[in-house]
Amino acid sequence: MSYHYTLRDAVVVRVVPEELASWSVLSANPFTVNLCFAGSRIAWSRERWLSIDGDLRIAAYLAVRSAHRHGHSTEVIGPDYHVADGISDHQYVTRALGIGSHTDVGPNFPWDVFAAHVDSFAGGTGQTAIDARAGASPWLGARHTDGELPTPDGVGRFAEFEHGYVYWHPATDAHAIPTAVMAKYAELGRETGPLGYPTAEHTELPDQRGSGPGLAQAFQGGTVYRRAAQPAYWVHGAIGARWAATGSENGELGWPASDETAHDDGMYQAFEFGRIYWVPEQIVALRNSGEPDTPMPRPT
């Protein structure tokens, strides 16, 4: 058995090109494009389905894209089923078309939520999420990209502007990245690297000891911090959580001064006034105070 796409935890794998039939729904294969929520069960509750809402959004986007590509309707056909051109599930093939005996996605699939996602992507305004974000971010300046460009995963999109970029993914929506943060994002491999896609707009951070406000922007894999006129650094994971517990850039350790660096059996990261060391099952924050440095107590 095969599908055109499998989807799990915001990762899409194209198994069969849409120009070819996958072996998914018996004699309905020649006129369908098929996606599988890998690991899902027909016994899932509505709450379990809603816990993967990001995947529902991605599936809705792919369904709309495929419908537009092949000239099909974007009508969502859920229970009670009726025979029509549109977007549905394996149970539709069984009950409406009389082909096979499968009943997935199951009785608790949130058709209302999925249909709302489909509607958001199929809307006829002609304005994309990237267009909307650019319109709300005049600081981006002139657009350099003609339209939008696909990201390597085949799902996301991006566009370049005079003073930054806008990246979009159905699981994260569209967010603008200023040039000052973009350099670090590019250094780490953009969306294919450990940072993934941006999840929020950048924030200006007051910096009384610096030459101007700093910047911070959250991504799927952590946050990029940049002081004015200084390099940007990536903070994430256990070290990032320990730094946040000290008060982040306003705490005793101050601003990040490096990315994570390998050390013995673990990692460390330098900050303005100290370091945080991590090894499996242990993390230690040290404040610079001469020899030796002073261990900082863990927050209670």
In the CATH hierarchy, what is the architecture of the domain at 5-122 at level 2?
A: 3-Layer(aba) Sandwich
> What helical percentage do the residues reach?
10-25%
The CATH class designation of the domain at 5-122 is Alpha Beta
Mean pLDDT score: 92
Which term fits the overall shape? Answer: elongated
- Name the strands of the widest sheet in spatial order: 12-13-14-15-16
The radius of gyration computed from the alpha-carbon positions, rounded to a whole number of angstroms, is: 24 Å
Instruction: Give the CATH superfamily of the domain at 5-122.
Output: Peptidoglycan recognition protein-like
Describe this structure in words.
- The chain has 7 helices and 16 strands.
- The protein has a domain at 5-122: 3-Layer(aba) Sandwich (Lysozyme-like).
- β5 (157-161) and β6 form a beta hairpin.
- A 5-stranded antiparallel β-sheet has the order 12-13-14-15-16, covered by helices on one side. A 4-stranded antiparallel β-sheet has the order 4-5-6-7. Strands 8-9-10-11 form a 4-stranded antiparallel β-sheet.
- The N and C termini lie far apart (53 Å).
- It is α+β, with helices and mostly antiparallel strands.
Brief description of this entry?
This protein has helices at 46-50, 53-70, 90-95, 111-122, 129-135, 179-187, 237-245, and strands spanning 5-8, 11-14, 35-37, 149-150, 157-161, 164-169, 173-178, 203-205, 214-219, 222-226, 232-235, 256-263, 266-271, 274-279, 282-287, 294-295.
Set out the fold topology:
Layout: E1 5-8, E2 11-14, E3 35-37, H1 46-50, H2 53-70, H3 90-95, H4 111-122, H5 129-135, E4 149-150, E5 157-161, E6 164-169, E7 173-178, H6 179-187, E8 203-205, E9 214-219, E10 222-226, E11 232-235, H7 237-245, E12 256-263, E13 266-271, E14 274-279, E15 282-287, E16 294-295
Parallel strand pairs: 1-3
Antiparallel strand pairs: 1-2, 4-5, 5-6, 6-7, 8-9, 9-10, 10-11, 12-13, 13-14, 14-15, 15-16
Helix pairs in contact: 2-4
